[in-house]
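Our consortium's second objective concerns turning raw sequence data into structural hypotheses that experimental partners can test. To show how far this objective has progressed, the report includes one record in full. It was chosen at random from the queue rather than selected for favorable results. The single chain below, 691 residues long, was entered without modification.
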Amino acid sequence: MKSLFTLILSLLIINPTLSQKQAFTIADLYKIKTVENPTFSPDGKKIAFTVKEDTLEKGKSNTEVYVMNADGSGIKKLTDNPAADTKPHWSPDGKSLLFISTRKDGSQAWLVPAEGGEAKQLTSFAMEVDNLDWAPGGKHIVFSTMVFPKCGADNDCNKKNEDGLTNGPIQAHIADRLLYRHWTSWKDGKRAHTFVYNLEKQTYLDLTPGDFDWPSFSTGGGGFVFSPDGAELCVTSNHDVDEASTTNKDLWIVPTSGGMPKNITAENKAFDGEPEYSPDGKYIAFKIQTIPTFEADRFRLALYDRKSGATIVLTDAFDNWVDNFHWSPDSRSIYFTGQVKGNVPIFTIDIKTKKIVEVVSAKTIDAFDVTPDGKAIVFVRRSVGEPREVWRVDANGKNLKRLTFFNKEVEEAVDIRPAEELWIQSPTGKKIHTFIVKPHNFDPKKKYPLILNVHGGPQSQWADAFRGDWQVYPGSGYIVAFPNPHGSTGYGQAFTNAISKDWNGKVYQDVMAVADSLANLSFVDKDRMGAMGWSYGGYMMMWLEGHTDRFKAIACMMGVYNLTAMYGATEELWFPEWDLGGTPWTSDLYQKLAPNHYVKNFKTPCLVITGQRDYRVPYTQSLEFFTGLQKMGVPSRLIVFKNDGHWPSAVKSMPLYYNAHLDWFHKYLGGDPAPYDMTKMVRNRVFDLKQ
């Protein structure tokens, strides 16, 4: 007994990180609940939010609406239905919550009492409902949806045209101009319009008619908002003729009583969007870019003075991107999140002095809201070692408190690994910020295989934020490394700009410098290093394939390979035209930077993954790459998700994605043996190699 105790004690001394928790698996990832969208009630006493749960075995997920007291007590599940219930919005009187549900007639607007009870369907619009909110006064709601412009609010007309496209004798897409498809959908003559629905009369009014998208597509949301008095709607729209080659979105004022829309940002030919009226009605805050056609220009915070018509940029002194923002209740300042060195803190800015103060830094803050009295902030935060949960903090940054514990059971049972940070010197003259996550039961005396992951964008950042691949691979015995090379956001706009027209230069040097540095760590096995990347990260994998044999295995997802072919098939042409210096017939960068010219050098075993409905980086790019690998006799595997776009379904496709990576890296980096039949896994939905 004494010898056993001594052995256990010695193991703990030798390996202080030895965990009593179980290693993180793919199955554990799908036990994690995603907590989102915290919003204070009008009186500040309640918080509404949503929780998404996955069912790995069925390949399904579901989202429900919850409410709790402002201190985190009294959590109540307001909706409980097999259909998804999302995007809750408090009614002006605080007595009910508006939300989107797929229970009936596709995505529609529903209403549920804030104290609990049966939900009631409000809309039954033929083309379904997307974004929505309350109009001031609570007698109307506003939402956006795709319609045929000639039909507007005519339900029968929209339904008839939609049926003709989908169920008629001829199944074809027809286009007369560019941007005929986007992300995973074909336009087919449809446009996004914004509607007002009268709750009493049950009638629809199209506030934004015509052959334009009102609001324009935006991954950031925030496309429309009512003025506090309800007299007007501010909506984001792009009226340029060549929509595929411009980032020029503008703010338009639409009178709710009727009249012509007015463009209030026409002078700026770059992006203006995500408007938000000040509570006193004097200003409209919005996000602005100043360089036309450059989608990765710095997002600044600006003000439109409704009386004078002047626009003032507030955050010129903040040399990073502004993300989400909310007004303070007194209209004197604005709270915003910003990307800074792998973190996303909350700041506040005084609109008169432009003084910026950091309120709270809590790794990655995804969404937040401010109490109606301005005394507290509620937000969703995560870090590499912590899943999303709701937190609260005083407006001065004090008294930080976690309010929800939906993932407590998993956190207590499973070893969710935190990140460590390194700053690695590059030949480019910069130190490259790099996150590393060490494996379960890490022993510094051992050597481990390492996977280096290059992010996409390319103008984005790896943040200290919970992600599946930051846990699944360490749970299977790998060190994972996530560098932020040139082109990353959060390190000043000059650093972000440096990747444009230089995809294969400084970034390649940064990535190789990080690989060399990590190879010298005592616990890294330099002979068992792999690399992976998605989108632009996939491009870098293709470039590595033709330029180095440093890595023993590569995994390339949704990568850009033949740049000329990519230009001819992608949708948002402003991106390659800026980042590659023009069109293929005006810029030689399409040839100089293209990985497809180096097929003769291919030798590293490579896994290739793509989505058949990826219109951003068409899946044929991956097919071409795979063909080159096969013709060169390089061990390679191709996986095509036939129903997915640039981002595969989280619960239907990503389990296979993770397993395919583990199978590949186990085989070529000398990890656990992997006698698994991937075809059988796809057919039988066996999604965890450890089961």
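The partners drew two points from this record. The two ends are 33 Å apart (CA to CA). The longest strand covers residues 524-534. Both points have been shared with the crystallography group to help prioritize constructs.
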